[in-house]
Amino acid sequence: xxxxxxxxPLGLGGxxxxxxxxxxxxxxxxxxxxxxxxxxxxxxxKPGASGSSTTTSSPSHLGDPAKRPAGISxxxxxxxxxxxxxxxxxxxxxxxxxxxxxxxxEEERQRRREELEAKEREERERAEALRQKAxxxxxxxxxxxxxxxxxxxxxxxxxxxxxxxxxxxSRASAPPSAKPGLPPSRKxxxxxxxxxxxxxxxxxxxxxxxxxxxxxxxxxxxxRSLAAMKRxxxxxxxxxxxxxxxxxxxxxxxxxxxxxxxxxxxNRMAERAADVVKALMKMGMMVTMNQSIDADTAELVIEEFxxxxxxxSDADVEHVIDTVEDKAExxxxxxxxxxxxxxxxxxxxxxxxxxxxxxVVSGEAGGITQHIGAYQVKTxxxxxxxxxxxxGHAAFTSMRARGAQVTDIVVLVVAADDAxxxxxxxxxxxxxxxxxxxxxxxxxxxxxxxxxxxxxxxxLQHEVIVEKxxxxxxxxxxxxxxxxxxxxxxxxxxxxxxxxxLRANPxxxxxxxxxxxxxxxxRGPVATVLxxxxxxxxxxxxxxxxxxxxxxxxxNDKGExxxxxxxxxxxxVLGLNGTPEAGDVLNVVETEAQAREIADYREKxxxxxxxxxxxxxxxxxxxxxxxxxxxxxxxxxxxxADVQGSAEAIVQALEKVGNDEVRVxxxxxxxxxxxxxDITLAEASQAAVIxxxxxxxxxxxxxxxxxxxxxxxxSVIYDLVDDVKKAASGLLKAEVxxxxxxxxxxxxxxxxxxxxxxxxxxxxxxxxxxxxxVRLLRDNVVIHEGTLKTLKRFKDEVKEVQSGQECxxxxxxxxxxxxxxxxxxxxxxxxxRKLA
Length: 836
Fold this sequence. Notes:
The chain is α+β, with helices and mostly antiparallel strands.
């Protein structure tokens, strides 16, 4: 069959297919487009056709070799027919797959529809059940009220004799199935009750309009509307479900600080913030919930809402710290706390070393003590003594002061060969300020030039009178090197402690003083605490200064872990959230919230204090300070130390370096290793980084190399202060000194073209040099100071002219010279200055 024999084209689908596609655009616009899809005609060979291949419904030019296109062989024809059959099979399979997928989607949609309908049906049934239950309860309540009302009416008025109904009326009113003379059956009684209820329900509603006659006659009075009945049923339903009971208002004690946010006030009253804002607006205050109000206004709002206001201040958070007085029966004896004080290198640590029979001096850089050490020593008699070893260097004055605040007895060490020195006097002042007894230990008694009597005599100048000078201060001659007099010293300490009768309550919450604090790389912030009252236990929550924490571990002076530390026991405390300052007081509290609140309050108070100090500065003061600072050269430094006390001592020492022209400015000081942040700060301020017993980490070293920041390491405070002093001396302006080398007198003045006025002079004293400075004197008054432009002898330019010789001089940019003027010739020398 050819293309011309049929009326429609051959193909798998029987021609083109058309449909509509709906296009959607913005703003809700749509458009329908007619789309027509034309199928490709597929030729299938008929069986039994001539040639090597047979096709079904194929065109004549494919089945007939004569009409086949030229160049197509039988094999090619067979391959094309096979491709057509494969395409037909694929199309059939795709159609089946699409039909199956469509059927599965339809089944899924149907299943979801059924689930939704079932869920909605369940909700409707539940709501209907609740409504039916409410209606039944309401109906039962109304019937009970009606029965009660009828019973009360029957009691109030006696019932009249009921008239006998006529036989016809009786028969009419009786149900059809009722037999005369027989009582009604149960079914008839139920039917009668339903009829009564229906009648009562119909009577309870308004039927028709209320006419004027009915209103005047009193018949058909006003009844409850359908909406009112529905509201009543809804209230009954909510009451049955437990929603109808209104909670009783709870009166609260509201803590009221000096200022409070409106939102915070609402939270403390457990009221809505919008209601509080509305109440304030009624008072004439247009505020938002994020604004603060004063305590008086807040108190009015609290009373308006029916609560009670409790006035508190911000400082009340510290009242949770236990400050109760200890009872006499709770006090128990405690070891005395002895502080070793004295001048540098007078043998304080060596004396304590001999008492402890350990080597402490070898562990300190340069043989001097730079930390406050706390140790416990047990004597041969069994007494336990707690020793504090304080540094003797002048830079550690504040550390010694803190040591004197927590001590019971001061042992003043004075070298027999040096006698009383400046820091010995400071130690005496600290001991007197702390009002603690003093014991003088005259050390180095084994030296040939030792003179203990000179020490006793020198102490008289500072009002320290020892027993051998008829005073009340104990003195002992000792030798830390040979051990001479150590037993006598310990006996005197024990005797003094027995006189003091030191007692403490070990059962109360612990309180102690921070002797030293540092930032350990592996353990974090570590504080050396000397417990003064109570017992510090592992797991206690405490607040110390502006920091707080929970005791994670306690380590005694021997490096051992302990579970608790009683009064007068020094321990290292781990578990702080930050590094405290030496001298801070540690207090144990009940909860973490209290500790955090106290620490936050102290931090805020310190911040406000600094801000107030800055705000008190007037503009004139700032201008004056800026003008004064402009003339002062600064040496900026960043200090990092191993412990807090050393860092503070270094800062205090560096603040004393300088004069009116130069000073040292400490940009930042802290505890711990040198970090990349310190390098960044130093680079921005062009400062040097100084590490005292600490080192820089890898990233900090790399950053310092890249940014060319100098890092200096020190382990002895002497060397640190001396180097900084030398660096600060380099900022001083050099001192210019003048040396007069000669005088010359002008004999005649010559005018030379191109040169100007030239003075014919004779050198009267010394020598005249061309590189020297000159001053022109007229009647012994300096009228010009400058330099020589030319110095000639006859016609030759010379470098110098000796005394008694004549020469020609011309001044640089100055020509007002006259015969008889005197020229003063001098040389300048710059001398580098140093800080004292």
